[in-house]
Amino acid sequence: MLQEIVAGNVYAFLLVFCRLGSAMMSLPGVGETSISPRFRLSIALLMAGVSVPVLGPTLPPLPAQPLHLAFFMLTEIGLGLAIGLLARLAISALHVAGTVIALQAGLAAAIFFDPNQGSQSAVVSSALVFMGITLIFVTDLHLMALQAAYDSYTLFPPLQAPAFGDFAEVATRMVAGSLELGLKLSAPFIVYGIVFNVALGLLNRLMPTLQIFFIMQAPLIALSLILLGLSLVAIGLSFTTHVEALLSQLLAPR
After folding, report:
1. H helix count then E strand count, the chain
2. Per-residue three-class SS string for 51-109
3. Residue 157 carries which DSSP code?
4. Which pTM does this prediction carry?
5. How would residue 3 be classed by pLDDT, with cut points 50, 70 and 90?
6. Strands 119-122 and 111-114
7. Strand partners, 121
C-alpha cells in the first residue's frame, strides 16, 4: 500500500513537472537565458510540488507500460513549451519596434548577439527587449505568466487531444498583434525618417556638390535618440498593456 502511494505521488510530481518545467524554459520574464538555470529549475520544482496535491486527482492513473509513461511525459512537455512560446510572442513586438527604429535612426549597422533572440540584433532592439523584460518583473506580469502555466491544466486537461486548430488560431492572432504593436511603437520614427530624408533630398538638389547625407548622419542619430528618450514611457505603457492582454487569453475563466 505504501509503495503504491509513493509511486503514485512520484508519478504525479513527474507529470506535473514536465509541463511546468518546460513552460519555465520559455515563459517571458521567467524563462530568459539571462536568468540562472538553477533558479528556473528551483521555481519549476517548487511550483510542481505545490501543485501536485491539487492537480494529482485530475491526472490519469499510472500506466503499466513504460512506453505509455514516456508518451505521457512527451505530451506534457510539448504542451508546456507551446504555452510558454505563445506567451513569449509578446516580446517580439519590442524586437520588431527596435529593428524599425534602428533602420530609421541609422543605427542598423550597430548589431551584436542577443541571447534572448538567439541571433544578432540591433542595439536599439536589444535595449528595448531588456527594458520590456524589466517591466515584466516590475509590474508583476511574471506572476501572471506563472498563473497561465497553472491554468493550462484547466484549459488543456492532461492527455486530452490538443486542439491544434485553436493553438494555430491563437498563435496567428498573437503574431499579428505583436507585429501590429511593433509597427505602432515605431510609427513616430517612421514619420521622422520620411520627413528627415525628404528634407535631405531637397537640400541635396539645392546644393549638389555638398555631401549632405554624410554631414547630416550625426544629427539624424542625435535627433533619433532624443525622440527615443521621449517615447520610452509610451512604449513601456503600451508594451505592458499588450502583455497583460495577451496573457489574459491563456488564463482560465474565473
Report:
1. 10, 2
2. HHHHHHHHCCCCCCCHHHHHHHHHHHHHHHHHHHHHHHCCHHHHHHHHHHHHHHHCCCC
3. -
4. 0.77
5. very low
6. antiparallel
7. 112
Rounded to whole angstroms, how far apart are CA atoms 24 and 43?
A: 8
Contacts of 202 (CB under 8 A, 6+ apart): none
**Amino acid present at 55:** L
**Per residue in 11-69, pLDDT tens?**
788 888 888 888 887 777 677 676 777 888 888 888 888 888 887 777 777 777 778 77
Q: What is the pLDDT of residues 214-237, one digit of tens each?
A: 777 788 888 888 888 888 888 889
User: CB count, 10 Å around CB of 147?
Assistant: 15
**The C-alpha cell of 237 is what?**
505603457
Q: How far apart are CA 29 and CA 131, in angstroms?
A: 11
Integer CA distances (angstroms), 92 to 54, 117, 141, 180, 225, in order:
34, 9, 16, 11, 21
Task: Give the cell for residue 87.
Answer: 506567451
User: For residues 143 and 139, what is the distance between their CA atoms, to the nearest angstrom?
Assistant: 9
The DSSP call for residue 1 is: -
Residue 217 to residue 72: CA distance in whole angstroms:
58
Q: What is the DSSP letter of 208?
A: T
C-alpha 67/C-alpha 43 separation (Å) is 28
